[in-house]
Specification:
globular; 11 strands; 3 helices; eleven-stranded antiparallel β-sheet; 10% helix; mainly beta
Length: 234
């Protein structure tokens, strides 16, 4: 998914029994690769078990739900050829649930959609997690919403006061509908949220071509070779 009017997007990779975020782009760190535990040169396989969103074992229970501890790190431009020397643990939980999405004036009433919700905790244990990033996916809209929650006790980057200020500033925007606080016992404050339910006409009546984000990445110097389009080997 890619928000062309904002500051970037995400690339998800589907592999047997799993889906993970393999890369992201934002206005801060730019284009980043997410890699799971690996050594030596970065290969496509390292991306399939990185920022895990959900796993789909063949004998999965109904409804879909589960949890795991991912081990991953991110690589910025100029450092994306070799696996990192350390990896961060992230408790990960996913489940299916109905979720009520907002509507904006002129676009009808709020609607409830069946949603895959994936939570990525900053640490191996929920009760001591530094932060939580939560992602929502629907059949109708694809990537539909994302949230950033911060542990209110603070950390080396953000003091308790800064987190409280960020939460107040975000609450004043009215940018997203309400959501439950992540489970685990840590006191979390919502400091950012994006909800992609406001539909506007595309500049081209035919819409954006499928894959335009990956095409843009392929045109940039330094993009990892495994993002090249498929074709005959040389």
């Amino acid at each position: 998914m890619f928000d062309q009017g904002s500051d970037g997007g995400d690339i998800a990779v589907l592999s047997p029994g799993r889906v993970s975020f393999a890369a992201t782009e934002d206005g801060g760190a730019g284009f980043q690769l997410f890699v799971g535990e690996c050594s030596g040169p970065v290969t496509p396989d390292a991306l399939t078990h990185s920022w895990i969103l959900a796993e789909f074992p063949s004998d999965r229970p109904e409804p879909l739900k589960g949890e795991t501890i991912a081990r991953l790190n991110d690589l910025t431009v100029g450092h994306q050829e070799t696996c990192p020397t350390r990896f961060n643990a992230a408790f990960t939980r996913w489940h299916i649930a109905p979720f009520r999405y907002r509507a904006v004036p002129g676009q009808g009433t709020p609607i409830t959609l069946t949603t895959l919700i994936s939570e990525h905790y900053g640490g191996a244990r929920r009760e001591t997690a530094d932060h939580v990033e939560r992602f929502y996916f629907t059949r109708e809209l694809g990537g539909t919403r994302s949230e950033r929650w911060q542990n209110t006790i603070g950390n080396r980057q953000f003091s308790t006061e800064k987190i409280a200020e960020a939460a107040r500033n975000f609450a004043a925007t009215g940018r997203c509908s309400e959501a439950p606080v992540p489970e685990g016992g840590a006191q979390m404050a919502l400091v950012d949220c994006r909800e992609w339910t406001r539909i506007v006409p595309p500049a081209d009546r035919g819409g954006d071509r499928p894959g335009f984000f990956i095409e843009t990445l392929r045109s940039r110097p330094g993009t990892p070779g495994f993002f090249a389009p498929p074709g005959p080997s040389k």
